[in-house]
Specification:
The protein is α+β, with helices and mostly antiparallel strands. Helices cover 32% and strands 19% of the residues. It has a single domain (3-52, 63-358), classed as Jelly Rolls (Sandwich), CATH 2.60.120.330. It contains 10 helices and 14 strands. Belongs to the iron/ascorbate-dependent oxidoreductase family.
């Protein structure tokens, strides 16, 4: 068979998977004992790396920042260090009740482990649908599918969203959780502004990014052959910044100084990471760093990613923040609207970094 034959076979397999409308969990519930070809990472690389003796040897730990530790100046310094050196940090004492975090995780679990007909009714790969269940939004674009399913909710077009469209089983908790994320997002924008030595209101006023958001409730089923596939391929986030809630299973890794560093689960903590847009408007002062999620024998693993984005309907033009550029340090990126950014992102597979497209 020529490569065209393999390609046709692959597309047939993708289509058959897509048609089940039940994602990876559907395969696992069906009793699958091996990882189907469409999920297998290109040969050697991953399994060699995971089996190598250097794996797990990293002693690094991403910064943990206590937002209630008192001294604002100290917190701002820690945020500057974490955002510029790591692009990732965890926050504790962030003001969102731990009880709400638990209820959000439980709400997502109830959806993913709930009635199959309901899930099928939400299933869609249409990027314009605001509330949808899918497995691999880039299923037909990426080289390799990821071992995860996702319930997505977004108000990216104009900030408007009808809660009646949410799955009933987690409707109330989603509303409460999103309100809390937006409030915390505003607080983080103040700290991030101060870390860039800008007026504390600067990012909140100039980005509009807490008005447009996308929430991804990920479900990573236990995997029979976790060294053959990934829960999420290497990528950086197409956001201003992202707030991630993860359970205690682990598997999220961040690329730091060429090593994959585990993001250790901490009960009650939220993970913050700088996204591509903040890297671009900060003119590379803050870094949008590659990360991935390993597949796991244990599990399922649940995480909730909340991306602060902006609005597609807004005419706002983003570019390097004036205060952060100078003659010696000119802008590194073209100006863009969020619509241009989002169109570019959604036309690519997850593992193709979107900020490169805007590099000058
Ligand atoms: C993402 C992501 C990590 C996780 O959704 O962009 O990186 O732990 N998620 O689910
Ligand atoms: Ni991510």
């Amino acid at each position: 068979m020529g490569s065209g034959g393999f390609e046709n076979e692959r597309i047939r397999e993708l289509k058959a998977f897509d048609d089940t409308k039940l994602g990876v969990k559907g395969l696992v519930d069906g009793g699958i004992q091996t990882v189907p070809k469409i999920f297998i990472q290109p040969s050697k690389g991953l399994s060699q790396e995971l089996n190598s003796k250097h794996h797990h040897s990293s002693n690094f730990q991403i910064p943990v920042i206590d937002l209630a530790s008192g001294r604002c100046e100290e917190i701002v310094n820690q945020i500057f260090y974490a955002s510029s050196e790591w692009g990732f940090f965890q926050i504790v004492n962030h003001g969102v009740p731990v009880e709400l975090l638990d209820r959000m995780m439980e709400g997502s679990r109830l959806f993913h482990e709930g009635d199959e007909e309901t899930k099928k009714a939400f299933y869609s790969l249409n990027k314009r649908k605001q509330v949808k269940f899918s497995s691999n939004y880039d299923l037909y674009k990426s080289q390799t599918a990821n071992w995860r399913d996702t319930l997505t909710i977004d108000n990216l077009f104009d900030g408007h969203l009808d809660p009646n469209d949410f799955p009933v089983i987690c409707r109330d908790v989603i509303l409460e959780y999103t309100r809390n994320m937006i409030k915390l997002g505003d607080k983080l924008l103040e700290l991030l502004s101060q870390a860039l030595e800008l007026n504390p209101c600067h990012l909140r006023l100039t980005t509009e990014c807490t008005r447009g958001w996308l929430m991804a409730c990920h479900y990573y089923p236990a995997c029979p052959e976790p060294e053959l596939t990934l829960g999420a391929s290497n990528h950086s986030d197409p956001s201003f910044f992202t707030l991630l809630l993860q359970d205690q299973i682990g598997g999220l890794q961040v690329l730091h100084q060429n090593q994959w560093v585990n993001v250790q689960p901490i009960p009650g903590a939220l993970v913050v990471n700088i996204g591509d847009i903040l890297q671009m408007i900060s003119n590379d002062k803050f870094r949008s760093v590659e990360h991935r999620v390993l597949a796991n024998h244990l599990g399922p693993r649940i995480s909730i990613a909340f991306f602060f984005e902006g609005l597609i309907s807004s005419a706002k033009i983003y570019g390097s923040i004036k205060e952060l550029t100078s003659e010696e340090n000119p802008p590194s990126y073209k100006e863009f609207t969020f619509k241009e950014f989002a169109t570019n992102f959604f036309s690519r597979p997850l593992n193709e970094t979107s900020y490169k497209h805007f590099k000058l």
